[in-house]
């Protein structure tokens, strides 16, 4: 079977809802469309991260787009982690096709006994993982805490800066006030980036990687945290 046939077969087995990121070949031809595409801006922004010679863990890697990309950008070792066995089968097929040195492991990062926690990496990444359901279910802090345990040097996170409470989250400010301090729930918006910044602030210094403007912006922003 060709690469495209193999990846399409896996996508059909696991269900399209598990293909978050469009799956591409080495020339960025689409193998299977996902919910989110890659564009030039994402590639350029991610390429600003200094991966040279570093060990990296990529949590919630899906079909491994950023896992493979980190290796191409010079990382010494990259481990892509996902809890879905089906997507990891796809990652292994792509790894063979790309002849990439990365590796993939199945872990559930909500598991407090997760074996990943026995290791640390130069860079721990969480790209396009925290979204609306994490805000609504108050799971941001536990996810950030897990990520932080995997590196003593550098964390890479991407989040949407701000969500409109009614239009995007489909909830009310009163509901969010029950979950979060008032300073993050204001002007009809939930200020996710500020929440993430403050969560890490005592221990990590935040540096934006993406270009940022004032106010609402829909595309997720890449941010780096460096240990103080
Ligand atoms: C929104 S996708 C992010 C994809 C990838 N980081 C990217 O930007 O292309 C989230 C991925 O995390 C995985 N995932 C969700 N919860 C997880 C958990 N508790 N442990 C490990 N992986 C998880 C999902 O299977 C999915 O592949």
Please trace the helix and strand order, writing H or E for each element: HEEHEHEHEEHHEEHEEHEE
Q: How would you characterize the largest beta sheet?
A: 7 strands, mixed
How big is the Rg?
Answer: 18 Å
Number of strands: 12
Spatial order of the strands forming the largest sheet: 5-4-3-6-7-12-11
**Assembly level:** single chain
The structural class is: alpha/beta
What is the beta-strand fraction? Answer: 15-25%
What small molecules are bound in this structure?
Answer: S-adenosylmethionine
Query: Overall pLDDT, averaged?
Result: 97
Outline the low-pLDDT stretches.
Answer: none
Helix share, percent = 25-40%
* Count of DSSP H/I helices: 8
Kindly report how far apart the N and C termini lie.
50 Å
Which geometry do the CA atoms define? Answer: globular
Describe it for me?
The chain has 228 residues and is an alpha/beta fold. It has a domain at 128-138 and 153-228. The chain contains eight helices and twelve strands. The protein has helices at residues 3-14, 40-46, 65-72, 85-98, 132-136, 140-148, 173-177, 192-200, and strands at residues 23-24, 30-32, 55-59, 77-82, 103-106, 121-126, 151-159, 163-164, 185-186, 189-190, 204-208, 221-227. Helix 3 (65-72) links the parallel strand 3 (55-59) and strand 4 (77-82). Helix 1 packs antiparallel against helix 4. The longest helix is centred in the middle third of the chain and has 14 residues, at 85-98. The mean pLDDT is 97. The structure holds S-adenosylmethionine (SAM). Residues 20-21, 60-62, 65-66, 82-84, 87, 107-110, 127-129 line the site of S-adenosylmethionine.
């Amino acid at each position: 079977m060709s690469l495209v046939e193999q990846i399409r077969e896996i996508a059909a087995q696991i269900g399209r809802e598990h293909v978050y990121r469009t799956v591409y070949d080495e020339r960025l031809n689409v193998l299977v469309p996902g919910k989110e595409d890659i564009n030039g801006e994402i590639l350029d922004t991610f390429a600003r991260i200094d991966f040279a010679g570093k060990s990296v863990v990529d949590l919630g890697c899906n079909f491994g787009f950023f896992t493979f990309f980190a290796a191409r950008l010079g990382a010494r070792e990259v481990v892509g982690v996902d809890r879905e066995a089906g997507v990891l089968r796809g990652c292994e097929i792509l790894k063979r096709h790309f002849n990439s040195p990365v590796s993939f492991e199945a872990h559930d990062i909500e598991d407090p006994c997760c074996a990943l926690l026995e290791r640390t990496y130069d860079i721990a990444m969480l790209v396009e993982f925290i979204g609306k359901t994490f805000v609504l279910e108050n799971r941001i802090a536990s996810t950030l805490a897990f990520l932080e345990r995997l590196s003593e040097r550098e964390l890479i996170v991407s989040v949407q800066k701000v969500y409109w409470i009614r239009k995007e989250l489909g909830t009310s400010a009163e509901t969010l006030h029950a979950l979060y301090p008032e300073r993050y729930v204001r002007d009809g918006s939930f200020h996710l980036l500020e929440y993430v910044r403050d969560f890490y602030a005592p221990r990590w210094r935040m540096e934006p990687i993406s270009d940022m403007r004032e106010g609402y912006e829909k595309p997720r922003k890449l941010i780096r945290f460096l240990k103080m």
